[in-house]
Design brief:
It is a single chain. The chain is built from 10 helices and 8 strands. A hairpin with a 2-residue loop joins strand 4 and strand 5. The longest helix is centred in the C-terminal third of the chain and has 15 residues. The protein has about 210 residues and is of the alpha/beta class. It has 2 domains: about 140 residues, 3-Layer(aba) Sandwich (Rossmann fold); about 60 residues, Winged helix-like DNA-binding domain superfamily/Winged helix DNA-binding domain (Arc Repressor Mutant, subunit A, Orthogonal Bundle). The strands form 2 sheets. Strands 2-1-3-6-7-8 form a 6-stranded parallel beta sheet, with helices on both faces. A two-stranded antiparallel ribbon has the order 4-5. Helix 7 packs across helix 10.
C-alpha cells in the first residue's frame, strides 16, 4: 500500500500518516507540503491513493485538484477540507475528486473513506450525503449554479480573479496571452450575469469555491 499526502501543515501530515500506518502496517507514505511538491512526487512515484488538502499554499480548491487529477493517471484523490459547503464539495467531485471529507472527521471515518475509494467508488461523509439527499428531495438541481456553466479554463480564471490576480498575472500563471484571459473573463461575465471582478469574488467566497482564512 502506497499513499501520498499533500498537506502544508506538518502536524496534520503526521496525524494522517499515523492513521494510515495503523490500518495498513506495511504502508509506504510519501508527503508533500504543496501542490508543486505533490506534482513532483507523482512524477517519481505511483501511490494507490492521494489525500489532498483543499487549500494549499500554491493552489486553491478545484484549481489544485484539476492539476493533481490530470497528473495522477487515475489514482483516486480524497479531498480533506475545513469547508463542508454542499456546493463546494459538489464542485470538487465534478472536477475529479474520488471523495470529500471534513478535516474534523475521526480516524475511523478516514479509513472507511480510503477503503471505499480504493475499490473505485466515491465517498462523501454521512452528513454531506444527507444534505445531498435533502437537496434532491426539495426538487433542486445540482447543476443550476452560475459557475456550473463555465468550462474548466473559465472556472480557473474565475478562481484567480477571486484571488485578486490581475489579467497579466493570470496570463502568466495559465501560460496564456492577456487577450485570451480577457476573452475568458468576458465569457465568464456573459454566462453568469456578473458585472465586475468584485461580484466574481463575492460569489466565490459565498459559495465556498475558494477556502476562507485558515
Amino acid at each position: 500500500m502506497n499513499a501520498l499526502i499533500v498537506e502544508d501543515l506538518a502536524i496534520v501530515r503526521a496525524g494522517l500518516r499515523r492513521i494510515i500506518e495503523l490500518r495498513w502496517h506495511a504502508a509506504t507514505v510519501w508527503e508533500a507540503a504543496s501542490l508543486a511538491e505533490g506534482l513532483a512526487r507523482l512524477g517519481e512515484l505511483k501511490p494507490d491513493f492521494i489525500l489532498m488538502d483543499s487549500s494549499l499554499p500554491d493552489a486553491q480548491a478545484a484549481e489544485g485538484l484539476e492539476r493533481l487529477h490530470a497528473a495522477a493517471d487515475g489514482t483516486p484523490i480524497l479531498i480533506l477540507s475545513l469547508n463542508k459547503d454542499l456546493t463546494f464539495a459538489q464542485q470538487l467531485m465534478l472536477r475529479g475528486a474520488a471523495g470529500h471529507l471534513g478535516k474534523d472527521t475521526t480516524g475511523e471515518e478516514l479509513v472507511r473513506a480510503i477503503e471505499r475509494i480504493l475499490t473505485g467508488l466515491k465517498y462523501v461523509s454521512p452528513e454531506l450525503a444527507e444534505r445531498m439527499l435533502a437537496h434532491l428531495e426539495q426538487g433542486r438541481s445540482f447543476s443550476t449554479q452560475p459557475h456550473e456553466r463555465l468550462t474548466a479554463q473559465e472556472f480557473r480564471v474565475m478562481l484567480l480573479i477571486c484571488e485578486g490576480q490581475k489579467p497579466g498575472e493570470i496570463a502568466a500563471a495559465m501560460r496564456l496571452s492577456p487577450k485570451t484571459v480577457s476573452n475568458y473573463r468576458t465569457r465568464i461575465l456573459e454566462k453568469t450575469g456578473w458585472r465586475s471582478d468584485a461580484e466574481v469574488a463575492r460569489y466565490c467566497l459565498l459559495h465556498g469555491l475558494v477556502a476562507g482564512p485558515r
